[in-house]
């Protein structure tokens, strides 16, 4: 670029947008936070939502693979303050959840706060001004007192590096980036991975393809789950009979907490899950060798427990082949496994999950004194105070941050606890007539010490598997260690003595 061009580019750049709060992302977290700020009296000028894509919805916008659904019942996997009595299924499909979020955004007039196609790349704290300077990929700068990340941890697709993948002549895409322009009808399709996404898409696509190869590295535990459309009378009851919908939500909540008790306190109880999982295999798969291949050798719950009535039927379909040999490379025509066999395919679907324990590196955060948060977390492990705020990083909040994911209940419950907590933190700053707030190291260390002690006894640490809940040092940085009501209690009140107020 010449100097003149550079000067022109700088002049063309828009001036910084000044606001009180920047929210990153417009999924459940971002929208929920926006509503909380509205309720707290934040006006139109007072916050913006920066969304990398061209629509709202986060996970429920991105994941459009066939059969995509939620594995937590919808009456629980929705905002408590925005109930929807007429969910069509107990476990709703992606389009309905996406529509639900669009309805919420509409109702609260949230679209006007959102800057679409605004991918946040870096954020820098100005020590003097005591403001975050947030930069998006298009060069726009936002200056804000508070920065709230609602990006979550399951938004960066993980595509394994496979030698020769570039040579593959067919179509290849990740489950969260489903290429709807590719017609799989009558094709030979490979699905790599057998996690939450794969078990939903396998039984759907097997109907259309000519041949389905399922590459399984570790078999999942899959519980039986009938998910027929809810009859009209049930939906009418939830809509018209007071208390029924709320009662259903309470029942779902406590049923899942019982599973959570097994996972966090009594992993022995999860033997029941293993029995159910084995029965689920047995009733659909007659071939004993295949049953053995599909049966996990680790405790149920160590990896996410999945549920489906159709997965094993899809696996038992004569068109399906389960391949457990390690993938060594790809060629122009297909996939080569460690036994030297080349499996010809037309389409490869990577149902290989997401960058999770390193997902925080999606944005470069530089705090006071130029401290790089990503460097700190790479060095010390990803930790936050109560999973939300970070020691010595003023006015920075994460929704579904470190150790606040769940293996057993609705993350929307966690998000609601967190947005309430962040709203309280912001109110506390205003009340103290301060500029900023950050948790003390001591408070954060004490919280995380207890958390890791609690995790030591859980099925995720003791269940004999290697899951994406664990970072490269084998430390669980993803899941909450206890029951969700315990997290609700832990975040119910913002405790001022755990924080340092700055710029009073
Ligand atoms: P996932 O559960 O992490 O599954 C990834 C799969 O890919 C695993 O079977 C994994 O095997 C396999 N894999 C990864 N790298 C591989 C490689 N290099 N070679 C061969 N296999 C490889 O990912 P996901 O299915 O996308 O789900 C991720 C998370 O999203 C879920 O746990 C859940 O939290 C969420 N999700 C939720 C829903 C819902 O209904 N609410 C639906 C879909 C997803 P290993 O097990 O051996 O690592």
TrEMBL record:
| Membrane-spanning intervals of the chain | none
Alphabetically list the UniProt keywords: FAD, Flavoprotein, Monooxygenase, NADP, Oxidoreductase
Cofactor(s) the protein needs: FAD
| Superkingdom per UniProt | Bacteria
**Keyword NADP on entry:** yes
User: Listed GO molecular functions?
Assistant: monooxygenase activity
Record-given protein name:
NAD(P)/FAD-dependent oxidoreductase
What is the species listed in this Swiss-Prot or TrEMBL entry? Mycolicibacterium hodleri
